[in-house]
Amino acid sequence: MTKIKPNPPFSHVIFLANKLELQSGLRPDRFSCSIVANCYSRLGRANLAFGLLGKQFKLGYQPDISLFNILLNGFVHSNQLSKGFKLLERIVKLRWKPDLVTYGVVFKGLCSTGDHVSALRLLRHMESRAEVKPDVVIYNTIIDSLGKDKLVIQAINLFKEMET
User: Fold this and answer.
1) What mean pLDDT do residues 2-14 have?
2) CB of 39 within 8 A of CB of 2?
């Protein structure tokens, strides 16, 4: 249901998941919790999505990086970037390894607020690390944002750099 285009019925998915759990007594698996967290995130309800992290721990599940990516995305969607960055700091302190999706969400948040300096600094940091290298999506996110903010020369230079 969450893949229905153009308007996925996120609130309906949440309703059905809650109804299923309450009426049947079945406990959700970690994937179901992540799906519901994604629905909350896409609706801009990051705090409710974050509650699903606690639920996973309560149910005895170890969250994975994909759930953290969902939560980060939720903070970006609800314009709570500072909470998202605090979560990212905690993820790293707990020795979770951010992946390409994690970085993509962070770049989306930085660029949506026009913080090109931080985005370019993070890009340079990624390029220098061996673990995760930026891909075309990350470059395009920054280039698009630079272009929209009329920083065309910087966008062209980054594009040329990406080609090499």
Assistant:
1) 85
2) yes
Q: How confident is the model at residue 73 (pLDDT cuts 50, 70, 90)?
A: very high
Is pLDDT above 80 for 135? Answer: yes
Rounded to an integer, what is the distance from CA 10 to the centroid of its chain?
17
The C-alpha torsion from 14 through 19 and 25 to 27, rounded to 10°, is: -10
- Residue 91's contacts (CB-CB under 8 Å, 6 or more residues apart) are 65, 68, 98, 102
- Give tens-digit pLDDT for 119-128: 999 899 888 8
Minimal CA–CA distance to 133: which of 157, 162, 91, 113?
Answer: 162
| Two tokens, residue 67 | 């759930």
CA-based angle 136:72:138, to the nearest 5?
10
Residue 80: which residues within 8 A CB-CB, separation 6 or more?
46
Q: Identify whether the C-beta of residue 141 lies closer than 8 Å to the C-beta of residue 104.
A: yes
pLDDT in tens, 46-59: 989 988 888 888 99
